[in-house]
Amino acid sequence: MFAFALGAANANAQVGKGAAPVDSTVPGIMKRAGRQASATWLRDMLRQADSRLPGSKLDELADSLAERAIRPLDSPNAEGGAAAISALNLLIMSGSNAELKGTPYAGAFTRLVRVLETSSSRDMRARALGGLLAVGSHTNALSRLKQVAESNDPLAYDAINFLITDASGGSWLGISPSATHQQESVVALRTLAARSRVSDPKAARLPTAWVARNGG
Predict the structure, then answer these.
(1) Dihedral sign, CA of 12, 5, 83, 55?
(2) Cα separation, 143 vs 22, whole angstroms
(3) What is the DSSP track for 10-43?
(4) pLDDT in tens, 32-70
(5) Given this model, what pLDDT does residue 176 score?
(6) I need a surface site. Which of 98, 124, 157, 177 has the fewest CB within 10 A?
(7) What mean pLDDT is predicted for residues 145-170?
(8) Measured at the alpha carbon of residue 166, what is the angle toward residues 192 and 197, in degrees to the nearest 5?
(9) What is the DSSP letter of 60?
């Protein structure tokens, strides 16, 4: 975690007398964030916690994070993979409905879908898929997870596991779902079990078994 105290409000301010101004362009901000783009100040910038930035600039920042998540720096270097995960996590937290400073960044869901659809990494795709449950519209997230669950996507099993975790009140992100969201995920699991469209045999057993254990 970075120890930067700078926020969006003083992005153009000088650090001290005679010091060069901080680069407030998107490339400059990404450079300041460094390879491990997990700085809370950048999350707060996207959530507009301390100041208002043009929507176009927020979108450009989010696009840069999504690009880093899709194409890790120095891939397949481990450091590049860590940078990709940090960028993805920051995107998720910037759009999270959790009790954080500021307002959830509305474009987070779209960027996570982009990572899901274009990344060649199974791990990054799975992280993006699970992250959808924490940002934006829960209804839209459930629709996407059910779509993946009933497709030939290798993440079908993961999609149902995410739904089970959400329905049970848990989260791999540490962001607990509301009671309403839990119930919506319960309904999604019952729907998957009832219409029997999950083609992956291993994945297909999950919703059926969960409903049997929890009442259908």
Answers:
(1) negative
(2) 42
(3) GTTSBSSTTPPBP--SHHHHHHHH-SS---HHHH
(4) 766 655 678 888 989 998 878 788 889 999 999 999 899
(5) 84
(6) 98
(7) 96
(8) 10
(9) H
First to last CA, the chain: 44
**pLDDT > 90 fraction of the chain, expressed in percent and rounded:** 57
Cβ atoms within 10 Å, residue 34 = 14
Residue 170 structure tokens: 């848990």
pTM over 0.85: no
In angstroms, rounded to a whole number, what is the distance separating the alpha carbons of residues 95 and 136? Answer: 7
- Tell me the C-alpha distance between 31 and 123, whole Å: 25
